[in-house]
Design a protein that fits this description.
Helix content is 74%, strand content 0%. The protein contains 2 helices and no strands.
């Protein structure tokens, strides 16, 4: 795995964690921000052929 792929997957994982936390605390604004970030990261992964496992935060 190259550095780009590893970094991207790490960012996706961190964003998923942050999104879960925002949902648990009821921070609707942060949920929107984190979801948008996650969508962008997943789009970037798809554009570069990086496989991302599906999660419950999708």
């Amino acid at each position: 795995m190259d550095a780009f792929t590893a970094g991207l997957l790490q960012r996706i994982e961190a964003t998923e964690t942050d999104l879960t936390h925002a949902r648990e605390t009821g921070d609707d604004f942060l949920v929107e921000v984190e979801q948008a970030e996650l969508d962008d990261l997943r789009r970037l992964a798809a554009e570069h052929g990086v496989q991302v496992s599906a999660t419950a935060t999708a």
